[in-house]
């Protein structure tokens, strides 16, 4: 019997047993034969953590406890593993973004030089003259180089063309990186000479994909835009300097042909001289620029130079963005503490069931630090296993994130790696120690408080631990979390479903979207082409390309648009004439929020969009002063309130994206007349106010980038991609086709990103719900079990079972009701402040059902141990130690 064991423990605690010393030795993790005075060598001291001793015996006991309490092991371990997984990924992401380490010799001393206008804070990149000056004058920064980014068509010997990002770079960059080529040679100084043959070095990935890893590629001629270029070398895998390039050509600066402040846009890099700090380099550079400003005040009066760490300079993060990324780890650290607080709740409930054991051990001589050390060891073993799982998941998660990012942006800076650094593993180890301390030491301190007093009181049947207000707050908080997270997951899934089912009202599966633009002008031209010249040339080239595509037998029609359905459309605010309109959205009191796009006059007939009312565009609308627009049905319903749109006038009062010339001053904006109505065609989800759309006629010679919609008669539209690229190269090698994709997949990136967030939220929800429900069950079952004596007394005195049940359940029900109420309040606040969601009957019903579910789990957690207690005879219940 426990009472007999407790009586014996009290006698031992009072020093009335001669066997106290060897028993204490066993409790301290030392073999009996090693106790002083016993046979054998002297005892070994146990390990300690911040004053809490524990031995390897505690590790063995901890492993046994994991097997003995599988629910706590699984739920608590998964929760800690998830927190460590999220923390490790966040730390690795922040390290690579905020503190990038370039995989080059002395990579930490590579810097970038920027110039900014102090009045506008805009970057100034036409600094060819300054770069030449710095290269000869600066002593704190050596091996200065420069590059510019060009988007060009690469036409290989097989005739296929593909858009390629090219680095026009000073030939000194290759000795600067100290990376030898895999094949051939790198760029050399003679390649920068005026009149030298056009040459290029290609990257390993391009060599594999476009040239099938052919070792004979060196010496082969390809076309970069209109220029025939000889391949002279191939770089090894992983080389992408200065950012993420696969083609390098020589930068041929002819500064004598430029005035100061003119010429190509350059980015400048260099390496700090030995022993020189960033501040010293900044001071020297500032002095040099001030001298130039005195000589050339017109161009340099308001310029300020900056010397920055290379990686951060390339990413161009603002202070706010850097602060946000840096604060992510703090937020996730708080998340870890919350998770470990929930695990601590489980550990406390488990430790509380071992109160008699701990009291006996205390009576036998074990100090409080010894007991806390054992409980900490149990949490540490659980945390260690969780860390292994969490780091394994983080390793896989970084690879998945890396692949996902590559799908969306094609390339990442060459120093980004899909792996976990040693710093991240160390960070995860520290998180594990912190989590074990929270989940193990905090409940252990609570459990071991006043053990000796409880030992004295045990003989009288009193004492016993109770949950304090802190644990009650944890229960309420975790129930609130389990209310909020599933609804957030549901709302995110709803957004994903809206993106996938966006109404387009055309046979989008039959259309192919082609994004076109002209190649960038090379730096060897005395000056870049003017925007007007580029626009005129682009109009001629794109029109000829469209004509040739339309002649293909499988093509039913071709048309142009600034943006196609399912693409992002910028939001704008408009005002209407005095003919009446629907009420304005409370989030945009300055006007009605709409989307807009410019389209060709034949756009709607080719796209198969049947006219609802009014007329389509015609050639007369191409005059700059015609000012006519066509609106969609969503505009008529949600902006005009169903009123007749024809003949109504509107004008813009604010533009989110200044993609056309104009002023944001409404008094200077022209009025447009509505001449027609067409179906809603995928400008945004229907619940988004931007689904209300306005179409303008696409004026010739005004755009340097356009979308071509190709209607395919039969078969898979994507199968036309090789044909279209070949036609583009034949029309003009400088006509760059950046993307060819079915119209139905134009928002696939957004859908994938939302789907990724849905999966993450669901995993987070599953972990939170499992942890919360297990905690509720364990704590409430413990609470009810601790009242077995009270229940027996009440039953013995004749109290009805219903009254006993209601009395015991009152506090757990109050806690659950408080948690559900808190979570519901948070959700209502979130929904009320969101412009995309509203609180309706469906949301209220879902919350009501979920609240009933939580109450059911709470009742189950209480009823199971209560039924066990009610079945005990009162005489037996009175003998149970509370």
What sort of overall outline do the alpha carbons produce when their principal axes are compared? globular
Indicate the mean pLDDT: 79
- The count of DSSP E runs of length 2 or more, i.e. the number of strands, is 23
Through-space gap between termini:
14 Å
The percent of residues in helical segments reads 40-55%
What percent strand? Answer: 15-25%
Structural class: alpha+beta
What would you report as the Rg, rounded to the nearest angstrom? 36 Å
Q: Main sheet, how many strands, which sense, barrel?
A: 6 strands, mixed, barrel
Q: Provide a count of the helices.
A: 25
Low-confidence stretches: 1-45, 458-463, 524-528, 657-666
What order do the strands of the largest sheet run in, or round the barrel if closed?
Answer: 4-5-10-7-9-8
Secondary structure blueprint with pairings:
Layout: H1 2-13, H2 20-27, E1 47-49, E2 52-54, H3 56-68, H4 70-98, E3 110-117, H5 128-137, E4 141-155, E5 161-169, H6 173-177, E6 183-184, E7 199-202, H7 204-211, E8 221-224, E9 227-234, E10 247-250, E11 267-272, H8 278-295, H9 297-300, E12 303-309, H10 310-315, H11 319-352, H12 355-363, H13 368-409, H14 422-447, H15 451-458, H16 469-500, E13 511-518, H17 531-550, E14 555-561, E15 571-576, E16 592-599, H18 603-607, E17 613-614, E18 628-632, H19 633-638, E19 649-655, E20 672-678, E21 693-697, E22 705-712, H20 721-731, E23 735-742, H21 748-786, H22 788-796, H23 801-833, H24 841-870, H25 874-877
Parallel strand pairs: 5-10, 7-9, 16-21, 18-20
Antiparallel strand pairs: 1-2, 3-11, 3-12, 4-5, 4-8, 4-11, 6-9, 7-10, 8-9, 13-22, 13-23, 14-22, 15-16, 15-19, 17-20, 18-21, 19-20
């Amino acid at each position: 019997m426990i009472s007999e064991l407790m009586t014996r423990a009290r006698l031992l605690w009072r020093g009335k047993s001669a066997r106290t010393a060897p028993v204490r030795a066993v409790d301290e993790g030392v073999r009996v034969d090693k106790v002083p005075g016993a046979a054998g060598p002297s005892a070994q001291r146990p390990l300690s953590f911040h004053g809490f001793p524990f031995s390897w015996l505690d590790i063995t006991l901890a492993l046994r406890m994991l097997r003995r309490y599988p629910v706590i092991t699984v739920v608590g371990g998964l929760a800690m593993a998830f927190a460590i997984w999220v923390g490790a990924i966040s730390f690795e992401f922040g390290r690579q973004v905020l503190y990038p380490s370039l995989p080059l010799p002395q990579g930490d001393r590579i810097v970038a030089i920027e110039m900014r206008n102090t009045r506008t804070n805009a970057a100034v990149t036409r600094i060819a003259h300054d770069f030449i000056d710095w290269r000869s004058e600066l002593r704190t920064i050596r091996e200065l180089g420069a590059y510019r980014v060009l988007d060009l068509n690469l036409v290989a010997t097989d005739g296929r063309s593909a858009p390629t990002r090219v680095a026009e770079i000073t030939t000194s960059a290759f000795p600067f990186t100290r990376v030898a080529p895999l094949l051939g040679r790198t760029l050399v100084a003679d390649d920068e000479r005026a009149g030298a043959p056009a040459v290029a070095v290609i990257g390993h990935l391009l060599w594999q994909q476009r040239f099938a890893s052919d070792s004979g590629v060196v010496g082969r001629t390809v076309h970069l835009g209109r220029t025939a270029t000889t391949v002279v070398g191939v770089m090894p895998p992983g080389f992408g300097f200065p950012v993420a390039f696969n083609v390098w050509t020589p930068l041929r600066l002819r500064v004598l042909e430029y005035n100061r402040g003119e010429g190509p846009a350059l980015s400048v890099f260099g390496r700090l001289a030995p022993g020189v700090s960033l501040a010293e380099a900044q001071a020297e550079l500032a002095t040099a620029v001030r001298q130039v400003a005195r000589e050339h005040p017109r161009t340099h009066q308001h310029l300020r130079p900056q010397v920055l760490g290379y990686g951060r300079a390339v990413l161009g993060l603002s202070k706010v963005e850097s602060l946000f990324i840096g604060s992510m780890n703090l937020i996730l650290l708080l998340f870890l503490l919350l998770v470990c607080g929930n695990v601590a709740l489980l550990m406390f409930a488990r430790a509380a069931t071992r109160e008699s054991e701990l009291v006996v051990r205390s009576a036998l001589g074990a100090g409080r630090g010894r007991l806390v050390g054992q409980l900490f060891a149990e949490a540490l073993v659980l945390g260690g296993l969780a860390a292994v799982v969490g780091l394994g998941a983080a390793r896989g998660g970084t690879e998945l994130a890396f692949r996902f990012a590559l799908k969306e942006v094609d390339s990442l800076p060459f120093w980004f790696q899909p792996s976990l650094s040693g710093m991240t593993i160390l960070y995860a180890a520290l998180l594990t120690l912190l989590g074990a301390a929270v989940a193990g030491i905090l409940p252990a301190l609570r459990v071991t408080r006043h053990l000796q007093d409880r030992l004295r009181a045990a003989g009288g049947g009193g004492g016993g631990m109770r949950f304090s207000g802190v644990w009650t707050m944890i229960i309420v908080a975790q129930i609130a979390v389990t209310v909020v997270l599933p609804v957030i997951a549901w709302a995110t899934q709803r957004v994903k479903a809206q993106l996938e089912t966006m109404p387009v009202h055309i046979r989008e599966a039959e259309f192919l979207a082609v994004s076109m633009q002209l190649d960038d002008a090379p730096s060897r031209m005395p000056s870049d082409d003017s925007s007007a010249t580029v626009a005129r040339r682009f109009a001629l080239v794109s029109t000829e390309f469209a004509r040739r595509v339309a002649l293909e037998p499988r093509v039913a029609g071709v048309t142009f648009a600034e943006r196609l359905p399912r693409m992002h459309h910028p939001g704008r605010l408009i005002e209407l004439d005095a003919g009446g309109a629907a009420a304005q959205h409370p989030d945009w009191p300055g006007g009605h929020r709409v989307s807009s796009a410019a389209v060709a006059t034949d756009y709607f007939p080719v796209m198969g969009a049947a006219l609802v009312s009014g007329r389509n565009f015609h050639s007369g609308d191409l005059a700059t002063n015609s000012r006519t627009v066509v609106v969609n049905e969503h505009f008529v319903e949600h902006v005009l309130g169903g009123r007749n749109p024809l003949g109504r006038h509107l004008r813009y009062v604010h533009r989110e994206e200044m993609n056309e010339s104009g002023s944001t001053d409404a008094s200077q904006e022209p009025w447009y007349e509505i001449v027609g109505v067409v179906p809603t065609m995928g400008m945004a989800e229907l619940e988004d106010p931007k689904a209300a759309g306005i179409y303008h006629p696409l004026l010739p010679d005004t755009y340097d980038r356009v979308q071509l919609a190709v209607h395919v008669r039969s078969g898979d539209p994507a199968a036309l991609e090789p044909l279209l690229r070949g036609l583009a190269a034949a029309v003009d090698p400088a006509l760059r086709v950046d993307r060819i994709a079915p119209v139905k997949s134009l928002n696939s990136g957004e859908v994938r990103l939302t789907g990724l967030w849905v999966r993450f939220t669901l995993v987070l929800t599953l972990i939170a719900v499992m942890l919360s429900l297990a905690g509720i069950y364990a704590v409430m079952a413990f609470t009810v079990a601790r009242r077995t004596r009270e229940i027996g007394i009440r039953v013995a005195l004749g109290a009805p079972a219903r009254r006993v049940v209601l009395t015991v359940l009152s506090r757990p029900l109050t806690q659950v009701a408080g948690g559900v109420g808190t979570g519901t309040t948070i959700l209502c606040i979130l929904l009320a402040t969101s412009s995309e969601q509203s609180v309706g009957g469906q949301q209220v019903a879902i919350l009501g059902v979920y609240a009933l579910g939580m109450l059911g789990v709470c009742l189950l957690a209480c009823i199971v141990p209560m039924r066990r207690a009610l079945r005990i005879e009162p005489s037996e219940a009175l003998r149970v130690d509370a």
